[in-house]
Amino acid sequence: MMPVEAPKKVSRHKDVVTPLLDFFQKAFERRPVWMLKCLRCLLKLWNPTICKKASKYLIESILASVAYQMRNGPWHGCWVQFGYDPRKNPGSRVLQVITLRLQAESMLEGRNQEP
To answer: What positions does the domain Transcription factor IIIC subunit 5 HTH occupy (predicted)?
Structure first.
């Protein structure tokens, strides 16, 4: 089941930082799925002063008033706009997260082998 709106306890953060809330609302109008790192980079370009002042906790608290976080699946770790389900929209496939994990030991072993 996908969330449709923010929980009551999170909604109180809407008045904390109006510029941040406006920024996130505009970002989710452009695209319904975002990674936190991408949002922070975009925020840094948009308003570096606010980005420096806002802690990770504050950013995530305000984000939680406009989006929910996917915990697993192809969009794990992404923030998704309330009311949007990326699993039901084929166009969301381009917004999936790709995770690469390399083990240092296996990389070193392969390096010393002859082709």
So the answer is: 8-101
Of 85, 62, 63, 60, which Cα lies nearest the Cα of 75? 85
Distance spanning both ends of the chain, measured CA to CA: 51
Tell me which amino acid residue 115 is: P
Structure tokens at 54: 């806002």
Q: Which residues pair with 112 in a beta bridge?
A: none
Distance CA 37, CA 105 (A): 28
Question: Where are the alpha helices (H) located in the chain, listed in sequence order?
Answer: 8-11, 18-30, 36-46, 48-53, 56-63, 104-111
pLDDT in tens, 65-94: 899 999 998 999 999 999 999 999 999 999
If we measure between CA atoms, which residue out of 82, 72, 71, 98 comes closest to residue 33? Answer: 82
Specify whether the CB–CB gap between 92 and 102 falls below 8 A: no
Asked if 95 contacts 12 with a C-beta cutoff of 8 angstroms, the reply is no
pLDDT in tens, 1-18: 677 776 665 555 444 478
